[in-house]
Structures are given as C-alpha cells and as structure tokens.
Amino acid sequence: MLDRKQLEMKNLLLVLKRLLNKRRFEEMPTIYSLQILNQIKQLLPKQTDSKVLTYLDPDPKSSYIWLRLNFLEQQAMLLIYHEEFVRSLSTDFDSDQFQDISTNNILFTIYDSLAISVRRSMEALIELKGFATYNNIELYKIYFCCSEIENLNKAQENRNVFFNAHSKNIGLQIKMSEEDLSDMLKGCPRTDLFFLRSPEDPKFLSMFENLKRNHSLLTPEELLILGYTYKYFSYLSDSAHLRNDLDKSKITIDDINLMYTHLGLILLHTVAILAELTPGIKNKKLDQINNLLKNNSLAKEIFNKYSGKNINIGDYVIAANKIAKVIKINHSSFRYNSYKVKFVDPPLVPEHTVENFLPTEIRFFARGKDIKTEVIKRIGKENCKGKANKESIEKIIDQGTLKMRDILQEIQKSRLKK
C-alpha cells in the first residue's frame, strides 16, 4: 500500500514516462549525450594539473565546464551500466516473484543508485541554468572562491572538533580567500549572484533556497522534471539517509524503469544547457535534442494545470471526493495557483466548509458559468433580480450540480453492469 508521498512521486514519474514515450529517442540520453560531450571536450582547452587555485585561473569558465562535463559523462556511464539490466526487466512479470527479500534488495540497490544520481543531476541542472542565464565570467571566479572557502572551513572544523588542533595556516588561507572574494563581489551585480545567499552572506544556497530563488529561470519542462517544488528533491534525498530506507522497502520493476527514464531525461537537459556555455559547438544531434525540448506541448499542458489556466472562480471541482465550488484562486510567486473552495457536498469535517487545495488535489467537474447561464435562461432574467433571488439561484445551481453528479454516477454503474 503506497502512502500519499510515494503515490505523488509515482504519479510524477508516470508523467515523465509519458513525456518520453511521446518521443522516439531511446538512444538520446546515452549515445547522443556522450557524442555531444565529446565534442565539447574537443572545443575546450585541455585540463591541466595546475596547482593554482581555480578561482585565480585565467579561464575559470572552462574549468567549470570541465567539472560539469565530467559529472554528466559519469551519469551517462551509469545509464549504460544499468541499461542491460533495466531493459531485461519486464512489467509483465508476476509481482509475487519479488516477495523474495534478496531479489527486492537487488532491485533496491539499482533504484537507490539511480535516485541519488537523479538528485545530483537536478542540482546540476538548476546550477547550469543560472550560469547560462547570467553569462558573467566573474561568477565562475566567485563560485570557485566560495567553494575554496567552504572546503577550508570544513577542514578547519574537522581539526577543531576531532583533534582540538586549530591550524593557523588554514586560518590564513581562509582570510586571504575571503579578502579575494570581497573584492570580486564588489565588481559583480547583486542580481547575478544566483547561487549565493547575498554579498553580505556569501554562502551557497541550499537546494530549497535555490529553487525559490531561481524558479523563474526554468522552462515548463525543466519544472516538470524537477518536480515543480522541493518536495520531489526531498523525496530523492531520503536515499542518502539510512533512517528513511523503510519508505522504499518494496521496490517494483516500474519504480526502476521510471527512475532510469527520469535520469535520462535530466541528462538530456543538462547536456543541452552545458552546450549553451560552450562557444562554437555545432551538432545535429544537439539540434534534435533542443528541438524536442523546446517544442514540448505536454510539458506546457501540465504546467498550465499548475498555473491554473483551466479552472476559474465559480467552477465546480471534485476535492477530497466531494463536489465543491471554487470561490478564490490563490497566486504564488512561483507562477503556481491553488484553489480556495467551498464544499457543496457535506464536508469531511463539518466545521471546515472552506478549504485550500493544490491543483493536483482537485479535478475539474463543471463550468459554473455555463450552468448559471442555463439556469437563468430557464428562470428568466426578470426573476433573477434582488439579493434574495440571486442567493436562491446559487442554491439551485449547487443542487443541480449535485444532481448532475448523481446522474453521471448512475450511468457509470449501469455501464459497468453490462
């Protein structure tokens, strides 16, 4: 029995599967990606074993591209490593054969490695998107300088906590790097610092903070594969914590197929964004990927559901398996909507007649405006004037909607009997 959290994640992954099934590109996540990454390698200056701090490198952008290129190549290799096993799995198998603990542990091992890679790839996608958007060479220097300071502070903390051995040398390195960072921040527009909390507090954003800050940079499809909110990333993060293993104690073939699909889709996106950072790249396979990613009607259709373009105030919806009327649409800064509804059916909790729902928690039932027009047409406009009459009409519309629901249910039952 899936809990609500697992069910939501499974539904999201099923949408991703549908997204890929609309396209014929089984080879794209691996073969196409590796070919594009190989071309990027040829266009970049060769990697060196320079002992110079990366943020002092005269070409920090190339160093960053190499860093992410190696990461993406590793994800493509992981897909190839698991490919034969994943392709050999059949969803037609009887699920009873996976009751064996050892077999399920094998499936869990594959699922877990894919989930962690998806999590890391999601971080890479939003980071690359920021660099591609702001296109400021100083950002790469600041990024590496902050990384250096973070690593030095961790090293110092480790010495202090476990050995009581504070290092003056590391302390001096931290001070010098912080002074360099302060000078760099003075020459960089505040709005470009997409990965830092602020110039006054130059620490890296958490993934939660990153999504909040850079949400508007993402396309509908990028939002889809990131799960729209932090919740999906949080779900994947469970794989990094031992105490949460029980949530995934029963892994199915479908779970593995969907996670494999998700990693492939993120890989395509991140490779395409990395290519934007690489001047002079020309590749027909990259053109095909970009064409597919930028002309995706399904992602836009799903995003419209989140942004509330399909449901209006006065419409009737099914919420918590009850008929309810939308009385207000709440707008968030993330381009999403939620719905304040008033139950027409008796609510689950009698005193809670009004409740707010996410777009994924309700289902459109009937257009309130159309029903009202039909009722007024039958009653006559002259009989609709006055507050008392208007309230009576609203009650008639509500009762008519409930009656329509009951009729539809009876029709469905009669069809099932046949």
Poorly predicted tracts of residues:
none
Task: Return the structural class.
Answer: alpha+beta
Q: How many structurally independent domains?
A: 2
The beta-strand count equals 5
Overall pLDDT confidence: 84
How do the SSEs run, as a string of H and E? HHHHHHHHHHHHEEEEEHH
Number of DSSP helices?
14
Strand content: 5-15%
Top keywords for this entry?
14 helices; alpha+beta; 418 residues; 61% helix; 2 domains
Question: How would you sum up this structure, described in words?
Answer:
This protein has helices at 4-21, 28-43, 60-88, 101-134, 137-163, 168-186, 207-214, 220-226, 230-237, 253-276, 284-294, 297-306, 368-379, 387-417, and strands at 316-319, 322-331, 337-343, 354-357, 362-366. By secondary structure, it is an alpha+beta fold. The chain folds into two domains: 4-136 and 189-302, no CATH class; 316-417, no CATH class. The chain has a five-stranded antiparallel beta sheet with strand order 4-3-2-1-5. Helix 5 runs antiparallel to helix 6. The chain starts with a helix and ends with a helix. The model has no long low-confidence stretch (mean pLDDT 84).
